[in-house]
Amino acid sequence: MEPGPPGGSRPAERGPCLSSPLGADQAASASLLSTAGAEPGRRPLAVAAVLPAGGCGERMGVPTPKQFCPILERPLISYTLQALESVCWIKDIVVAVTGENIEAMNGIIQKYQHKRISVVEAGVTRHRSIFNGLKALAEDQPNSKLCKPEVVIIHDAVRPFVEEDVLLKVVIATKEHGCSDYDLEFGTECLQLALKYCHTKAKLVEGSPDLWKVTYKRDLYAAESIIKERISQEICVVMDSKEGEEHIGHLLEEVLKSELNHVKVTSGALCHAGGDLQQIILEQCYNFVCVNVMTSDFQETQKLLSILEESNLSILYPVVVVSVHFFDVKLVPLSQKMENLMWIRGFAKEVRKRNILLYGLLICYPQDEQKLQESLRQAAVIIAALIKERNSGLVGQLLVA
Amino acid sequence: MEPGPPGGSRPAERGPCLSSPLGADQAASASLLSTAGAEPGRRPLAVAAVLPAGGCGERMGVPTPKQFCPILERPLISYTLQALESVCWIKDIVVAVTGENIEAMNGIIQKYQHKRISVVEAGVTRHRSIFNGLKALAEDQPNSKLCKPEVVIIHDAVRPFVEEDVLLKVVIATKEHGCSDYDLEFGTECLQLALKYCHTKAKLVEGSPDLWKVTYKRDLYAAESIIKERISQEICVVMDSKEGEEHIGHLLEEVLKSELNHVKVTSGALCHAGGDLQQIILEQCYNFVCVNVMTSDFQETQKLLSILEESNLSILYPVVVVSVHFFDVKLVPLSQKMENLMWIRGFAKEVRKRNILLYGLLICYPQDEQKLQESLRQAAVIIAALIKERNSGLVGQLLVA
After folding, report:
1. How many angstroms away from the CA of B221 is the closest CA of chain A?
2. Which of A309, A371, B225, B273 is most buried when burial is the number of CB atoms within 10 A of its CB?
3. What is the pTM for the complete model shown?
4. In chain B, whose CA is at the least distance from the CA of A360?
């Protein structure tokens, strides 16, 4: 099974606590960490996380420290925070950044609506930064709203693809081994330090290849491609109504299913106040193909855009909307059809500000069944290209299949 | 300075032997390796390379062995071969692939016109494959056209970004240390093996971060992004004639220069049988913006496409051609203009077969100076997007700035 978008969703937006499917053993262990699952009379284990993020990223070869480098226009550290905050049993997350970056960090937390995050000033070394983070979690801090945790996870700010199961393994190993903190890095000096200063034998917990550290510029490229791939796993074909199997939207849906066989294709109806769509949005689909049935109208696209804007879906990732319009060259010349649809340019500019990427797609609808299939296949290729690249430079363009 | 396209050019296509700029010391050392630079009466050092490529790429998580995974539709191993064959003092390159892949490997060599390559069957281990490669280079092989080399470079097939200077360091170190072969991998078992079996103290030669090994799927993503970035460093604005500073092409050129400040923007004229362009093609520019001056014509684009097709430039990388057309809404309605330009769809389909990605771009040309600048800036954004993504799904589309 393909993993969901990096970091999963925010628990507040979804029912269950777990952001990604865990095995039965892991689910049982995880229940010890949440209030609901804890045995009666037993307090759940208090877990917090500290993210040292004071580095300057000199190996990256770019002036911005790597934790602040943008991926799809959002700073890398926001993806890591998203991954940690999606784990509901991590009560507090403390980020240590250099003094000059505190304001920027607070801006990031606000813009991307991160929750349960505190910012502290980093030290001159990674270990000093961790120390400052731990200090903020200690009980004796004046004005601190943070609870003293029993386990603290130390996690690199530049490992955005950490999954709940690895974090869970770390916490369980901590309980068994009794160390005060664990490090997810492999082969760093941390295990040695734990032995030397804490007289504690640290345990190495196996991670996944996805846990790799963004170090070089090529890692940023890889991270961007991984994120793009993950948010392109599902396409929702939106129609005014799902009734009528002969609906042109269903024909397009079928072709998308057969042509893009690595992608899940669903459909949603705009009727009933978009209740269908609400569920799809909750399940974090970031790609919509909106079928407009009237020749020179765009009512459906307008409705969909309103629903998306209200949902806040595009806060974390750019959402692709392809506004599809059919035309029959025998009835209306293509040029006239295009002229009618030029409104899309202004619209695209407007919704771009809210991280929605709107493109227009005109699909030729000939009477000939074979030619129609050819048009729909061409449309599928164009839709796949738009979704894969998520290119903001091409928004508002009217493409022809 | 940004490096050129990975692997540099083929020496046969360019005058100098060196594919990338070397320091003075390195250039002096390199001269010892080429016939031209060797001291009178002294034979240049005979150097060959062996590429073990028999792996199955199980860590990649894809069914294709990683050396055959496509990047911009070309197999990874072809990039590595290109890098090695661009170094003129490597006389022979021997690739070891499993029996079932020999035919495919020969197909790759033919399709991408690789030179000086021999294919042998891989062994069951990496070391056996290297042994088979070395055997092919030994003098006593019947029917072998290969010369026995004095130094053999062993290079992983999945390290496509190797540069001449690193290879040179390896050869020089070999001369000084007298080992029989060197390995570019860091920290592998090879240094130990050299010590154990050859009683030779191998020397570790420092590489660059670019020398990294494609291991996981994310490395393929990174490699693709690096290659795309490297071939997007230069844009040539092509006009019918370079005379006349008021030429609209020059205005576009100026805006491209100011908007895309990380890209080198040059211009070339189609007159004089495209002599200008021949030089630009030789210097490996993979991006062309062709300005058509007649309202509904595409003579300039047709000329450029002919020149590109004859040049073989697109054998190794997809070449982007943006066919630019200006229109004044007061004179001709946009819809009519678009209708006139629909020929581009068929054309794009045709040249796509030869790895040329053709897109159309209509630029609004208002009388108002400020609005014109706005149009040109919008055009620059679209051109940058097309060149960056090199998306074959969108060829033949007519975009509007």
Report:
1. 5
2. B225
3. 0.87
4. B399
